[in-house]
């Protein structure tokens, strides 16, 4: 779990004033905390305008990752995609170091939360994501420094082992062992074979309604690029299908980790429209179609395992296990036919 800085309101006011001065933003008039489950961030109104001040998480605050993120934002904005530009200090730097924290200040772009009621909005999601991938490509990143994908089994194994060690009864241990088996199954079916052939691009890596804003059916902006990395572009595509084109029993609350990780059922019509939008820009390959249900399972395992870091210790096992097998069971019973039908009915 990434903890927010330990500041009380007077400290926060001083901190924001220092940052505003470094970026020459004008006099601070108001500060409002923004939502999210990990990263401390605020909107600030100053005499010159409205901005987002954000503390980069420690795991994403090294110079190379932070610089890569800002280069990507500038490239996307220059291409006309609605993303916030990082602001410059008088020194020409976009990053500001304050104590042990790395700060960024971004343009504020207004927009509304996802309501998911318009077929046009689903198509626009697919179109936007395809333009994102084609604009960034993979050639502006040093591929020798590519990190493990967040849902790669090697990135999750230590969490899995810790949870197994916590299990105090046979039934819990058995359920966790089944999840561990799925993790290893993914290594064999996806990581060591199919994933290597999938088309690469710089992906957003966290494409969900908490990070996307809308104006009616149009994408207003995309935020939070901490997970930006060169990976299979289909990793973002499966996020779009999971988080936007799926049905849930309760209202999606992006600031609530339990809501973010609740079970879901992919909606065929919505998925079809998202993929039609994406393929109007860049068609999926045969291997990508095969990989989609495997990436769905991989992402689901990651959501529950990594999400468990954000709940109290006594709740971790319940967080991971409650309704966990709804998704693997759906994939096994219906998922393969679901994606085959999507592929068969997609535009040629």
Please outline what is shown here.
The protein is of the alpha+beta class and 348 residues long. It contains eleven helices and eleven strands.
Structure description:
This protein has 348 residues and is an alpha+beta fold. The protein has two domains: 9-107, Phosphorylase Kinase, domain 1 (2-Layer Sandwich); 119-344, Alpha-Beta Complex (Aminoglycoside 3'-phosphotransferase, Chain: A, domain 2). It has eleven helices and eleven strands. The chain has helices at 9-22, 63-78, 119-136, 153-166, 170-191, 234-243, 257-260, 268-279, 286-307, 316-321, 326-344, and strands spanning 28-33, 41-46, 50-55, 95-98, 101-107, 200-203, 212-215, 218-222, 229-232, 246-247, 265-266. The strands form four sheets. It has a five-stranded antiparallel sheet with strand order 1-2-3-5-4, with helices on one face. The protein has a two-stranded antiparallel sheet with strand order 6-9. Strand 7 and strand 8 form a beta hairpin. Helix 4 packs parallel to helix 9 (286-307) and helix 5 runs antiparallel to helix 9 (286-307). The longest helix has 22 residues, at 170-191.
Mean pLDDT: 91
Describe the biggest sheet?
5 strands, antiparallel
* CATH architecture classification name of the largest domain: Alpha-Beta Complex
Compute the number of strand runs: 11
Distance between the termini: 44 Å
Structural class: alpha+beta
Fourth-level CATH superfamily of the largest domain: Aminoglycoside phosphotransferase (APH), C-terminal lobe
- Reported by name, the CATH topology of the largest domain is Aminoglycoside 3'-phosphotransferase, Chain: A, domain 2
What percentage of residues falls in helices of 4 or more residues?
40-55%
Number of helices: 11
Shape call: globular
Number of domains: 2
**Which residue ranges are poorly predicted, with pLDDT under 50 across at least 5 consecutive positions?**
1-10
């Amino acid at each position: 779990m990434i903890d927010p800085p330990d500041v009380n309101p007077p400290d926060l006011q001083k901190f924001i004033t220092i940052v505003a001065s470094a970026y020459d933003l004008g006099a601070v008039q108001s500060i409002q905390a923004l939502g999210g489950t990990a990263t401390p961030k605020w909107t600030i109104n100053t005499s010159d305008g409205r901005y987002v001040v954000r503390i980069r998480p420690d795991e994403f605050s090294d110079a190379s990752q932070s610089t890569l993120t800002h280069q990507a934002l500038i490239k996307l904005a220059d291409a006309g995609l609605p993303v916030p530009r990082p602001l410059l200090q008088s020194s020409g730097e976009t990053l500001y170091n304050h104590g042990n924290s790395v700060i960024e200040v971004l343009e504020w772009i207004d927009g509304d939360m996802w309501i998911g009621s318009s077929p046009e909005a689903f198509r626009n999601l697919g179109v936007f994501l395809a333009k994102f991938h084609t604009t960034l490509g993979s050639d502006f990143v040093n591929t020798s420094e590519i990190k493990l994908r967040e849902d790669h089994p090697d990135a999750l194994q230590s969490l899995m082992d810790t949870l197994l060690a916590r299990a105090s009864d046979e039934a819990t241990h058995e359920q966790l062992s089944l999840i561990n088996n799925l993790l290893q199954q993914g290594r064999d079916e996806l990581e060591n074979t199919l994933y290597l052939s999938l088309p690469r691009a710089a992906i957003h890596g966290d494409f969900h309604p908490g990070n996307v804003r809308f104006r009616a059916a149009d994408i207003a902006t995309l935020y939070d690029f901490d997970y930006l990395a060169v990976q299979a572009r289909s990793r973002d595509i499966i996020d779009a299908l999971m988080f936007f084109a799926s049905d849930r029993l309760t209202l999606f609350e992006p600031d609530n980790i339990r809501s973010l990780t609740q079970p879901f059922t992919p909606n065929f019509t919505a998925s079809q429209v998202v993929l039609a939008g994406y393929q109007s820009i860049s068609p999926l390959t045969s291997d990508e179609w095969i990989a989609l249900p495997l990436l769905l399972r991989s992402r689901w395992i990651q959501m529950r395992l990594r999400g468990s870091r954000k709940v109290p210790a006594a709740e971790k096992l319940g967080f991971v296990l409650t309704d966990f097998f709804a998704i693997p069971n759906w994939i096994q019973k219906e998922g393969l036919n679901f994606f085959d039908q999507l592929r068969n009915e997609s535009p040629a």
